[in-house]
Specification:
This protein is mainly alpha-helical and 424 residues long. Among the domains are: 14-120, Tetratricopeptide repeat domain (Serine Threonine Protein Phosphatase 5, Tetratricopeptide repeat); 362-424, no CATH class. Helices cover 79% and strands 0% of the residues. The chain is built from 23 helices and no strands. Helix 9 packs antiparallel against helix 10, helix 9 runs parallel beside helix 11 (191-203) and helix 21 (364-377) runs antiparallel to helix 22. The longest helix is centred in the first third of the chain and has 32 residues, at 2-33. The termini are far apart.
């Protein structure tokens, strides 16, 4: 009788102890939820002293460390759990989140993959893994993962957006348009799907449709520098220069990822608008950020030359050539030649025009300007005859200014006549 009574007392004490431990756990968890991380950790640590291998407490400690941005410690704690409980799905998920925060994308993907194996129907995990694959540039894997989810009525705009983002990266623009439209039928106000639709039309060179959907995106999120940037570029392709400038200025003011891309385009567009002051202002700001950008040096040189700052323009053209690739090299030499001609440095002008011709032997205007230089400023006119003839052979009558064609023909005829009489 006494032994039975003693046994019942032990059970009762154990129940009280478990209840107290559960109460303490609930309190620690509540403190975590309310953001009182230090107190939550202190209480959790006191409980772990009594039960150092308790999986529930180790997981709570991991959650606290995650909230404190101590991601490496979170991973250590989750690994401690998974050694004895390899099918603890929440430990795999929290471990994946910690790896994501450390930008260790491969390990994050592996953690989520294990969680999906344990719970194949978890759409939230599939979506997270798809996004991770997207961020690690595994676009096909991302699209393959998330595509089956889109057939369900429960598919979210976010899942459509992840799928369409991957399609765009793979250059599958027609599919992007189709799936973005399906997404917008469910939620027409979703920013990302409007943006994706606009980007797909932009890549297909359908600027009218691109502007329509990119404008929707801007209306829904006026603080998206990406939306402003591509809307500006679509407008620029439609020759809407002022509107393009407005949206690039908005993109710059947002100061996001596209700030410098927009500022770079402003240099060109302000130059084309003959607003040389704004062109140079943006060029100087941009070159403080990226001093070796040949594109910006090129347009800065042209703005300086048009404004009469000949020496400064030549320095900018020199920098554009020094830092540049092939895209702007030929045209930079051409404008540098014009600048040298304006500075009455005819030998340099000839040298630069010849460089232009060596880079593009079919660029007709270089022959015309070279002929003019020989004709007007050198006694020996014979090279001018050849250059005028080359210009006339290469110039497209439908695309060339008629006055230039007339001038070349008249000058060539006059030189041939003068040369004939000199011989005789």
């Amino acid at each position: 009788m006494h032994s039975r009574h003693f046994f019942m007392i032990l059970i009762y004490i154990s129940m009280i102890s478990q209840t107290a431990a559960q109460t303490a756990y609930n309190k620690a968890y509540g403190l975590l939820i309310n953001g009182r991380l230090a107190k939550s950790e202190t209480l959790c640590d006191s409980l772990l002293l009594q039960a150092p291998t308790n999986q529930k407490l180790l997981f709570l400690k991991g959650q606290i460390k995650m909230a404190q941005n101590c991601h490496q410690e979170t991973i250590f704690l989750m690994n401690s759990i998974l050694k004895t409980m390899p099918k603890h799905i929440d430990a795999h998920i929290l471990k994946g989140k910690a790896y994501q925060e450390l930008n260790r994308i491969k390990e994050a993907a592996e953690a989520y993959e294990r969680a999906i194996v344990l719970s194949p129907g978890r759409k939230d995990l599939i979506t997270k893994l798809a996004l991770i694959n997207y961020n690690r540039h595994a676009y096909r894997a991302a699209s393959t993962l998330i595509r089956p989810l889109l057939d369900h009525e429960t598919a979210t705009p976010y899942q459509f957006a992840v799928y369409c983002n991957a399609l765009i990266k793979m250059g599958r623009f027609n599919e992007t348009i189709s799936w973005s439209k399906k997404a917008l039928q469910r939620d027409s106000s979703n920013f990302t799907n409007n943006l994706n639709l606009g980007l797909a039309y932009y890549e297909k060179n359908n600027m009218d449709s691109a502007m329509t959907w990119l404008q929707h995106a801007v209306d829904q999120n006026p603080y998206s520098d990406k939306a402003h940037y591509y809307l500006a570029e679509a407008m620029a392709k439609k020759k809407w220069a002022s509107a393009a400038i407005t949206h690039h200025e908005e993109s710059v003011s947002i100061a996001g990822v596209y700030k410098w891309k927009s500022m770079k385009m402003l240099v060109k567009y302000y130059y084309n608008q003959q607003d040389y002051q704004s062109c140079l202002y943006n060029a100087n700001l941009y070159l403080d950020h990226e001093p070796q950008d040949s594109f910006v040096h090129h347009f800065m040189g042209r703005a300086l030359a048009d404004g009469g700052s000949i020496a400064e323009a030549d320095t900018s053209f020199h920098n554009a050539i020094m830092y540049g690739g092939q895209d702007f090299l030929m045209m930079t030499y051409f404008y540098r030649a014009l600048n040298a001609f304006q500075d009455k440095k005819y030998a340099k002008a000839i040298k630069y025009y010849k460089t232009v011709i060596s880079l593009d032997s079919k660029f007709a205007y270089a022959y015309y300007n070279l002929a003019i230089t020989y004709d007007d400023y050198y006694k020996d006119k014979r090279p001018a005859i050849h250059q005028y003839q080359q210009f006339l052979n290469l110039a497209d009558p439908e695309k060339t200014e008629p006055s230039l064609l007339k001038s070349a023909k008249e000058r060539l005829s006059s030189l041939k006549e003068a040369t004939f009489f000199q011989k005789n």
